[in-house]
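Lecture 7, part B: from sequences to assemblies.

Below are the input chains for today's worked example.
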Amino acid sequence: MNTLFPGAMPGMGFLGGLLIGLAGAIMLLGLGRIAGVSGLAARAVGIGSGTDSRAVALAFITGLPLGAALVASLRPVAITFPSSLAVLVIGGLLVGFGTRLGSGCTSGHGVCGLSRLSPRSMAATALFMAAGFATVAAMRALGWG
Amino acid sequence: MRALIALLAGTIFGAGLALSGMADPARIHAFLDLFGTWDPTLAFVIAGAITPMVFAWLIQRRLPRALSGDAFALPGTRRIDAPLAVGALLFGIGWGIAGLCPGPAIANLALAPFAVLPFLAAMIAGMLLHRLRAAGR
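Predicted structure of the full complex, as structure tokens:
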């Protein structure tokens, strides 16, 4: 694997994925809710739709950096950000608007929805994956990043 | 109690993101970059995440309500409409541009707080924009 795909982390990726799925299972079976980060984030900042508990949303969102900090205290976590401010701002606007319009992101549609065999989430995941691949290919062709 | 369960779930989720390398925008970019040095890690993460969730959905079908006593509040699965499609496409473009989606962006408050701030501010602005547009209809 690592000669074919240098830098890939199949083992750690799968293990980290299991944790993400465990978190989704706790939200679903424990609280009856989808662990969809975009929806919970919107709810946490007070601009979400629906009537879900804001305390639950805030608690889940608070946990994300806590968990990441916990891992970073045990082992190095490599993070490389795009250097361009414009890239971050344009990307953020599209991610914020798009996830609300499309009712979900990688977690809600990509993990919770796919595992539920939801046709709606399968369609959304296929579309955002395709758009992601096409965008990076286009950026490469245009010589950006 | 409910908030504590959500805090636990969020913490496990954030740990999973950091452990799997998914908090790293460069790794997401490498997954989406089919014409570069392709990094398939994200596919293993999705496979890992779906595994417990499949069992969770099987159990959910047999439960009258969640363990907290709350009724299940779950979105519909059938309707594939224009907002879903356009929203997913816009999200995918932003994801490709920055290499960040909401979960990793928020988890990065602990890993690269200053670097992620412009993305997070713009993401919330984008959500607000959607909210205002929806309210204006």
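Note for the exam: The two ends of chain A are 26 Å apart (CA to CA). Keep this in mind when comparing with the next example.
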